[in-house]
């Protein structure tokens, strides 16, 4: 208290001057419309800048929740895409279809489920990703995994609330992919070198592949919906001993900063695999 009194006594003249100055400015602004307009404009500019800084800080601390909401919204929108449905069957139906049908009779082919990435490796020859979704949420083996920009891998095992994904950056990963131009199909692999690039083998030379061509998942991908982004052709190498190209593909997915992904269930994949497994070997 004594220090406050000493401070006031020492700066009494300055304090009185500042008070009178403020009082004078208040009178000037209140009784002069020109100064009122200037003051209001300056005050709005100042408060606007303060609000913007506050909102930027607040937005930063809510990024996690914002990303979660966006992932769920994207999942809902992806589930409504026409490519997830087949056309209504006009033939005679003699039994109920076990697959989900919408109100116009279309059969759902693919279901999307958002998931948070909780572990991700990119520096090994065989890399894996862990997602915070498991059997309690409907995850099953061989479900496709897709990122915001392109495909990521497939589920190889799951627990109650987590699943393990074989990344495309795995020497054992093989996915059927095609050139968007001409629909020429090959096998997508990884050579274990650069995590930004994949290898597409078995593309016929008649495709006349060029640098910059788009690569998508093919109709033969099975667990992956066809037409998903894989990447773009970065280099074309012609195999002199065969009639095929080996293409270097710039991956659309950036595996270094992957935060969210989508688990995709092909509702007819199990039936297709079971039928193919029963095909006689000698026929």
TrEMBL record:
Involved in formation and maintenance of cell shape. The chain crosses the membrane at residues 12-31. InterPro entries: Cell/Rod_1, Cell/Rod_MreC_2, MreC, MreC_beta-barrel_core. One of its GO terms (biological process) is regulation of cell shape. It comes from Deminuibacter soli. Belongs to the MreC family. This is Cell shape-determining protein MreC. Residues 117-264 form the Rod shape-determining protein MreC beta-barrel core domain. Keywords: Cell shape, Membrane, Transmembrane, Transmembrane helix. GO terms for cellular component: plasma membrane. Pfam families: MreC (PF04085). It comes from the Bacteria. Signal peptide: none annotated. The keyword Membrane applies.
């Amino acid at each position: 208290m004594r220090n406050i009194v000493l401070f006031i006594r020492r700066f009494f003249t300055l304090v009185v001057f500042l008070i009178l100055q403020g009082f004078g400015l208040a009178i000037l602004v209140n009784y002069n419309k020109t100064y009122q307009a200037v003051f209001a404009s300056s005050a709005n500019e100042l408060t606007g800048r303060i609000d913007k800084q506050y909102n930027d800080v607040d937005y930063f601390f809510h990024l996690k929740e914002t990303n979660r909401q966006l992932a769920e919204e994207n999942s809902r929108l992806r589930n409504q895409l026409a490519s997830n449905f087949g056309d209504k069957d006009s033939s005679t139906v003699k039994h109920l279809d076990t697959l989900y049908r919408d109100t116009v009779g279309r059969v759902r082919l693919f279901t999307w489920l958002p998931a948070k990435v909780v572990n991700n490796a990119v520096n090994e020859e065989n890399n894996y990703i862990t997602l915070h979704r498991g059997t309690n949420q409907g995850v099953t083996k061989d479900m496709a995994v897709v990122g915001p920009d392109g495909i990521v891998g497939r589920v190889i095992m799951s627990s109650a609330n987590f699943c393990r994904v074989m990344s495309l950056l795995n020497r054992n990963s093989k996915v059927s992919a095609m050139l968007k131009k001409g629909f020429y199909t090959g096998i997508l692999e990884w050579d274990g070198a650069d995590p930004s690039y994949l290898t597409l083998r078995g593309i016929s030379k008649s495709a006349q592949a060029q640098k910059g061509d788009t690569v998508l998942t093919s109709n033969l991908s099975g667990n992956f919906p066809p037409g998903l982004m894989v990447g773009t052709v970065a280099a074309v190498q012609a195999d002199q001993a065969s009639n095929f190209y080996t293409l270097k593909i710039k991956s659309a997915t950036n595996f270094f900063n992957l935060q969210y992904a989508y688990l995709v269930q092909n509702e007819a994949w199990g039936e297709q695999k079971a039928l193919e497994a029963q095909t006689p070997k000698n026929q």
